[in-house]
Amino acid sequence: MPPPSQSLVKYDNPVLLSDAKRAKAAKQARKAKAGDKAATAAGIAGAALPAPALPATDDILNSIMPPREFEEDGQKWVQFVSAVPATRLDVINLQEQLDIRLQQRQARETGICPVREELYAQAFDELIRQVTVNCAERGLLLLRVRDEIRMTLAAYRTLYESSVAFGMRKALQAEQAKVDMHATIRNLERDQGELEQQVQELTHKCETIERREADRRAADEKKHADEIEMFKKTHQNYTAQLQQLINPGKAH
After folding, report:
1. C-beta neighbour count of 57 within 10 angstroms
2. How many domains is the chain partitioned into structurally?
3. Which of 50, 90, 169, 249 has the maximum number of C-beta atoms within 10 A of its C-beta?
C-alpha cells in the first residue's frame, strides 16, 4: 500500500502500526481499571454506580475520520488525525492551501469538477476536525450535515448518470430509427421507380393499342363507306333496270 497523498486534513506524524496497537491496548486497560476502581468505591460507599464516561475526543475524531494506514520500507505505518486545537492562523493557512491546491491541480471554477469536489470535501473535513476538538457534539452534528450532503450529491450523481444513459439510449434508438427510415425510403424509391417504369410501359402499350384501333376503325369506316357507295350504285342500276322493264317504250 503506497503512502497516502497529501490532504488538507491535519494528521499527526505516522507511527508504526504495532506501536499504535500496543498504545491502544494500554489505553483501554487503563480505562477499564479506572472504571473498576470507581465501581468498587461506589459499592463501598453505598452510592449509585457512576454514569459511563463519554468517548474521548480522540475516539470521536478517529470515528469521524479513520486513521490512514500505509506500508513503507516493509513496515506498516498508521497516521491518526490530529487532536490539536486550531488557531486563527490555521484557518487562514487552510484557506490559502485550498486556493493553492485548486490552482495546482487545475480545478475548474464552474461546472462539475471531481478535483474541486475532492479538495472542498477535504477542507470541510478539516473544519469538522477543528470544531470537534473544541466541541465534540458540534463536530458530530457537522458530520451529520456532511453525510447528508454526500448522500444528496450521490443521489444527484445517480440521477445524472441515469439521465445520461437514458439520453444515450434514446440517441441510439433515434439513430437506428433514422437508419431504418433511410432504408425504408430507399425501398420506397426503388418501388416508385419500378412502378413508374410499369406506368410508362402500360402507357406505351395503351398508345399502341389506341393507334391500332384507330387505324382499324378508319379501315372499317372506309370499307363501310365503299360498301354503301357500291350498294347505292347497285340500287341505282336495279332501279333503272326496273324502270325499263316497267316502261319499255320510254326507253326508246
Report:
1. 16
2. 1
3. 90
**Residue 241 grid coordinates:** 333496270
pTM of full prediction above 0.70: no
The answer to whether residue 188 sits within a structural domain is: no
CA distance 98 to 92: 10
Within a domain: 77 = yes
pLDDT tens, per residue, the chain with 252 residues: 555 678 888 888 888 877 767 766 666 666 666 555 555 655 565 555 444 444 677 888 888 888 888 887 788 888 888 888 989 999 999 999 999 999 999 999 888 888 999 999 999 999 999 999 999 899 999 999 999 999 998 999 899 899 999 999 999 999 999 999 999 999 999 999 999 999 999 999 999 999 999 999 999 999 999 999 999 999 998 888 888 888 876 655
Domain assignment of residue 84, given as a range: 15-134
Alpha carbon separation from 32 to 2, 25, 44 (Å, rounded): 36, 11, 18
Asked if residue 199 belongs to a domain, the reply is: no
